[in-house]
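Note to self: user wants both folds in one dump. Writing first protein now.
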Amino acid sequence: MEPAEKGSDGKGKPGRASDGGAEGQRVVLGVALPVLLLGFVSLFTDISSEMIIPVLPNFVIAGIGGSIVDLGLILGVTDAIANVIKGLSGWLSEHLHGRKKLIIAGYAVSNVVAKPLIGFQTSEVAVTLFRALDRIGKGIRTSPRDALIGYYGGHEHSGKAFGIHRSMDNLGAVFGPLLAALLLALAFTSQWVIILSVIPGIIAVVFIFFVKDIKQASLPRPGAGPDTAPERVSRQFVKTVAVLASIEFASLNAGFLIARTNEFFDSVNPGASLLIGALLFAVFNVVNSIVSIKAGKLSDTVGRKKVLTAGLVLLLAATVVLAIPWPSDPASSAFSAIMIASDFVLFGVYMGMVDPTSRAMVSDLSERKKGKAYGLYYFIIGIVSIPEAILFAVLYDNFGHVAAFSFWSLILVACIAIFTLGVKETLPALARRPARSVGKGRE
């Protein structure tokens, strides 16, 4: 017999959470209500963001005359800015003794100002500047938001909390490219798809006002939490984050996956690549959304490291598939198209396994200073984002996709080895508990 959800009334119905920072909060779908509200914020934000992603490579390369290196600079520099700002916002959220103001500011800058204005730009520099402003908004909000999720999830259910949040986030990432595909089918241009992203962005900001903030003063005193979650950022935490950053270096930005897809389908069916890319990106996010919640819960029981390792192996397989020079002649183009489309599924499973699990791993290693912990995590990742995107783009532009993806496969093999040998398990308290006896059997 399954035990009732923690915080339920004993019959599995919504009740009040009594775990970690979620104490006194209503439980919905097994998590504290603020986690669900933040999930809706991310859902509508990702509808806005993911409307843009499948059309951005086309907008940069075909719309304003940029190159694959320009795309790499835009993706790499702006993502790096986002992560560096996440580091600063994580530290700042600790000193402000609150998270909500930073979260509101970050989402408003991105959703209401920066993203829709990208569509009005006519040069690579201007697109980079507004994309950077969007990423600054993302950087401002992410660390304090993840800190809230970590507190409301508690030590025993942080994987589930992050899994549900990421699942809702990725559900928005499904609707976003589908909405973009619909607009493209209705003859809207890439420019107008970007501009119209402001509508779901505004809806996302409204949801934030219903989230209850957590003040630093209300958190458990030092020593009140489990021994496995020290108050200060530990040496093990820094080492773990450094290894996770090396994995980030080997990971591929989805923009390059879309660029490769557009390149292939342009050779098979010119004019249809943009719509096909948007639909395949929706498939990627469907898989990502489904896997996220399952992987987060799985990591609570079997451990973070096993789930992360499996996800990285799938990323390696996906990268190898992209390195193959798939032919575009009529006799074999159908098989090639299926293989490239299947890569979006592989990428979706990889992202769904790695993203929530790595965030839960960071939460495992921090008790009270979660904002600072996530800040350091994102800051280090931000430092490696620029060389990663630029190096890959230069390889792609000068030597073609075969050389670029082949070289990246080798880098990924090295990073997987570093991770498996250099990172210790951070299995949370729930996973370490022995199963309780129930009658003559076991749960």
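First done. Writing the second protein, which came from a different request thread.
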Amino acid sequence: MTDSDISGAGAPDSQPAPRTSPGQVAQQPTPASSTSFDFNRPTIINLLYLSSAVLGVTGLIGLVLAYVWKGEPHADWETSHYAYLIRTFWLGLIGVGVGLLLAIVLIGFVIWLAVGVLVVVRCVLSLVNAQKQQPMPNPDTWLA
């Protein structure tokens, strides 16, 4: 057997195997639709909200973008995301304020934790639906 018989180069339907170095694994191309991450507008707002836990001001930028993009022409499925994301911001801000007031009696820390978890869950749910380009099932809810 020759090297061309092993690699399948002699077969009319097959393509030659990509050359790799000894420690490298050959990667097969995957369809773009199955693994691509769509940076649509609701996704950008969600990522800004999630990064606000570390960077702080990005949540406010996300809120401004949600209000601005809500007024611009957009796909029908995005309308429910803007309402949901605007409500998520205000929910988080009110929760942080109540937690700050109650931090004196130490219950505020529990409220901060609960509000943080709720905001993350709401952002993840919105991210999942935004990637599928589906509307939020109940954008007017205060819970997840």
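Dump finished. Worth passing along: The chain has six helices and no strands.
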